[in-house]
Design goal:
The protein has one domain (2-247, 259-272): TIM Barrel (Alpha-Beta Barrel). Helices cover 41% and strands 17% of the residues. It has helices spanning 16-25, 38-42, 48-57, 76-96, 114-132, 154-164, 175-180, 185-189, 227-236, 250-253, 257-272, and strands spanning 2-6, 30-34, 61-69, 100-104, 138-142, 169-174, 196-201, 203-204, 217-218, 242-245. It is globular. Bound molecules: zinc ion (ZN). Zinc ion is lined by residues 142, 172, 174, 200, 246.
Length: 282
C-alpha cells in the first residue's frame, strides 16, 4: 500500500513547493495536487517545467488533480465555464503525467429530486469521459457526505458510475464522506473496487452524521470511524494501491506543516500496517 497526501491537509500552512519537499522528506509516495488554488499559486513563482522536473528527479509522484467542482445540474453558462476549467486541467494532467482527476458533485441548498441529479451526473460524466479519453485520464467521482450535496452516499455514487459504464469513470472512496452521511459497510462490500480510483483516509470527531464538516476531520485512528472494518473489507477486495491522507482541520493549520506531514504519516501507518504491508522509506 503506497502512501499519499492530499494538499487539503496543509491547505493553510504550506505551499505546493513546501508540500513536495516535506512529502519527499517523510517518504510519501504520492501527492494529490490542488489545481484549484495551490497549483495556481505555485505557478506565480515557478513554471510548469519546474514541477515536471521535480517529479522526474524525486520519489514523490502526482496521484491526482483536485478538483473539478460542482460538475452536475449547472446552468448552461456555468457548464460552459466548467468545461473550460476542465480542459485546462486535462492539459496539466498531460504534461504532469497525472492519470486521474477528482470530480465533485454540486452542493446546493436547493432541493433537487434524485432522478434529476442522476440524469445530469450521467450526462456530464459521459461527456467528460469522452474528453478525457485521448489524455488517458480517469475521472473519480467524490460523493460528499453532507445533506446538501447532490451525491452524498457511496451507494448513489456507485449507482451513477454503473449507469455511466465507462472504463475511465469511477469513484473516490473517502472514509469521512462515507461516515458523514451514514453510508454502510454493506454498501462498501457491494462496491466494485475496480472502480475505486482514489482512497482518501481520515477520521472524524464524534458528531452526529449529517452535521459534521470537513473541518471536523482528524488523523486516522484519532476519531470514531470504524477504520478496522473498512480496511478489512478493502483488504478482502484486494485493493492495495494507495491510501491518501486528506484532512482539512483548522487546528492542524495552526501547526507547522512539517509536524502535520510527519504526524499524519505516523498515525496513518499505525492504522494501515495492521492490514497491509507499508514500506518504510527514508
Ligand atoms: Zn476526499
Amino acid at each position: 500500500m503506497k502512501l499519499g497526501m492530499n494538499q487539503g491537509t496543509t491547505l493553510e500552512n504550506s505551499s505546493l513547493e513546501r508540500d513536495l519537499h516535506l512529502l519527499e522528506k517523510y517518504g510519501y509516495d504520492y501527492i494529490e495536487i490542488r489545481s484549484i488554488d495551490k497549483l495556481k499559486e505555485y505557478l506565480q513563482t515557478h513554471t510548469i517545467n519546474d514541477l515536471i522536473e521535480f517529479f522526474q528527479t524525486h520519489h514523490v509522484k502526482p496521484l491526482s488533480l483536485n478538483a473539478l467542482v460542482y460538475f452536475n445540474n449547472r446552468t448552461e453558462e456555468e457548464y460552459k465555464a466548467l468545461l473550460e476549467e476542465y480542459k485546462e486541467m486535462l492539459e496539466y494532467a498531460k504534461v504532469l503525467n497525472i492519470d486521474r482527476i477528482v470530480v465533485v458533485p454540486l452542493v446546493s441548498e436547493k432541493k433537487i429530486v434524485r432522478s434529476v441529479i442522476k440524469k445530469s451526473c450521467v450526462e456530464v460524466l459521459t461527456e467528460l469521459s469522452d474528453l478525457a479519453k485521448p489524455y488517458g485520464v480517469k475521472l473519480a467521482l467524490e460523493f460528499i457526505g453532507h445533506p446538501h450535496a447532490t451525491v452524498n452516499t457511496l451507494s448513489f455514487a456507485n449507482e451513477i458510475v454503473a449507469e455511466v459504464n465507462r472504463e475511465n469513470v469511477g469513484i473516490v472512496f473517502d472514509t469521512f464522506q462515507f461516515y458523514a452521511m451514514n453510508s454502510t459497510l454493506e454498501d462498501l462490500k457491494n462496491t466494485d473496487f475496480s472502480k475505486v480510483f482514489l482512497f482518501h483516509i481520515n477520521d472524524v470527531e464524534d458528531f452526529n452524521p449529517g452535521i459534521m464538516l470537513d473541518e471536523d476531520r482528524v488523523y486516522p485512528g484519532d476519531g470514531v470511524i470504524d477504520l478496522h472494518n473498512i480496511l478489512t473489507i478493502i483488504k478482502e477486495k484486494r485493493f492495495t494501491e494507495h491510501a491518501s491522507i486528506e484532512l482539512f482541520r483548522p487546528e492542524y493549520y495552526q501547526l507547522d506543516a512539517e509536524e502535520v506531514v510527519r504526524t499524519a504519516k505516523e498515525k496513518t501507518f499505525k492504522v494501515l500496517e495492521q492490514f497491509f504491508s507499508v514500506e518504510e522509506k527514508k
